[in-house]
Design goal:
The chain is an alpha/beta fold. It has 23 helices and five strands. Helix 22 links the parallel strand 1 and strand 2. The radius of gyration is 24 Å and the shape is globular. The N and C termini lie far apart (78 Å).
């Protein structure tokens, strides 16, 4: 048995890349979870807001997982992060199956996995409790079953494809882009009955949403259902396109899908100057070799009709994904599938594995150093301390730069009971301050360059208050926070 496994890995060593990334993600689970990550953990842990329209089933699935592993006494958010890390490895396995139908060379398969697994947009969600890995996994499954369906039209393959994309859409509405691409692909098929079957299976989505709408709102009308489905847009959580942000942030976010770009990068270089010399000695040769081999590529002719159709569908999916992310003001989260689509297209057009391998190795070095390592081992915020102050100063008004992070962490740790009034410094209104005591981190704040710092600026003064004391000082990698206690004059 042991010998059989060794022989299998010897001739299928691309599996080792998947195992390696699984270990990497599990070793670097984030100790600085995003505010959304903590919010989802709160919902899954306390059973509140389980059915969120934008990603309907994610929190509910996490709650089921937590109920299974609660006996371990592992921190709940760590359980959810582990779930995403394992699913991320599963996504790379699906990618391997798709690529293998085009190129069976183990070197090519290994390199494709190394490239996609090392992209920042994938790594960041594989190590945190975000909602994007689960729908990506099922979207990739649906793409794989479409690929097999185009080779031989069978009802079983259509069923698997349909159910996979349905689950993906129910886990996150972003998957509707993949759904539309698959639907267009089926329309190119001469047998219209398969389009009808696909539509019939797709009815699961509105049925599940209708049940969820009734459970959440206790009513079910057509207008109510539309308002529930489009909740984030109706409530204004999803911002309308801004031309300047679309043009600038779309390009930045596309680059960040592959490689971490953040103000923290410069701070890390300053802090670890000697180590960074060794880092760049390793990083630059891999990057240069990757770029050189990229220009050595010779394009293949795609002869099979089924392959031509599959490539067309991938291009449609790529364009839809980028355009939607761009119109969402360059939302990098919505670009998570782009590296996978590009590598699938690359497999059809080229056979040179070296470009993927060397660029992938460069990305592993960069993103592990500047993303995974600091997220795991460096304290990048003082949210825990702020929440402790919120617990002991329940009658104060908190005016904070990152209101969601503090509120979500408080509710995750203590529930929503006795949550003090918290106001975002970006939406400050004096009339909302209900107490004579204010605690704020606006005064003396310094934030490293990031998408958030570009979009959100705060220039407040508190002339009507007198400074009483500084409750907390925090500084890390270009971030500076001072929690000031202010008293009304």
């Amino acid at each position: 048995m042991k010998l059989r496994i060794i022989n299998k890995l010897k001739y299928n060593y691309s599996y080792l890349a998947v195992i390696g990334f699984a270990i990497l993600y599990l070793l670097f689970l984030s100790h600085n979870p995003t505010s959304d990550s903590v919010s989802y953990a709160y919902s899954s842990l306390h059973g509140e807001e389980l059915l969120r329209p934008h990603h309907l089933l994610y929190c509910w699935i996490c709650r089921v997982i937590y109920s299974v592993f609660a006996f371990t006494n592992i921190e709940p958010i760590t359980i959810f992060q582990t779930f995403n890390a394992i699913l991320a490895a599963g996504t790379l396995l699906v990618l391997r199956r798709i690529i293998k139908r085009v190129n069976r060379d183990e070197r090519f398969l290994f390199s494709a996995i190394v490239f996609c697994g090392s992209c920042f947009g994938f790594m960041r969600f594989a190590t945190d409790n975000e909602t994007y890995i689960l729908p990506l996994f099922f979207s990739m499954l649906s793409i794989y079953y479409l690929q097999t369906f185009l080779l031989e039209n069978t009802f079983a393959r259509l069923l698997k494809m349909s159910l996979s994309i349905v689950i993906a859409c129910l886990c996150h509405q972003l998957s509707i882009l993949a759904y539309l691409s698959l639907f267009i692909g089926l329309l190119l098929n001469k047998r219209r009955k398969y389009v009808l079957y696909f539509i019939l299976f797709s009815l699961i989505i509105p049925i599940v949403y209708s049940v969820a709408c009734w459970l959440v709102t206790n009513q079910l009308t057509l207008n109510g259902l539309f308002s529930f489905v489009l909740h984030d847009y109706v409530q204004g959580y999803a911002q309308s396109p801004d031309v300047k942000q679309v043009l600038i942030l779309s390009v930045v976010s596309l680059v960040r899908t592959f490689i971490q770009l953040h103000g923290n990068v410069l701070e890390l270089i300053k802090c670890f100057q000697v180590s960074m010399i060794l880092f760049f000695v390793l990083f630059l040769p891999f990057l240069i070799l990757g770029i050189v081999n990229l220009f050595k590529n010779q394009k293949n002719d795609i002869s099979l009709f089924s392959n031509k159709r599959f490539v067309i569908i991938l291009w449609i999916m790529l364009v839809l994904s980028f355009v939607f992310a761009a119109l969402s003001n360059g939302n990098a989260e919505f670009m998570i599938i782009i590296p996978f689509i590009l590598i699938m297209l690359y497999a059809y057009y080229f056979t040179n594995y070296k470009a993927m391998l060397f660029i992938g190795l460069a990305l592993i070095l960069w993103n592990t150093t500047f993303a995974l390592y600091p997220q795991r081992f460096i304290k990048l915020n003082c949210n825990e301390e702020v929440v402790s102050l919120m617990k002991t100063h329940k009658n104060a008004t908190f005016i904070l730069i990152d209101k969601p992070a503090a509120e979500n962490l408080y509710m995750y740790k203590y529930g929503s009971k006795d949550l003090p009034l918290v106001i975002s410094s970006h939406k400050y209104n004096k009339s909302k301050v209900l107490s004579e005591k204010v605690i704020t981190d606006v005064i003396g704040a310094k934030t490293p360059l990031s998408r958030s710092s570009i979009l959100n600026t705060s220039d407040l003064d508190f002339k009507e208050y007198k400074k009483d004391s500084i409750l907390l000082k925090f500084e890390s990698l270009g971030l500076k926070r001072e929690l000031h206690l202010l008293q009304l004059r």
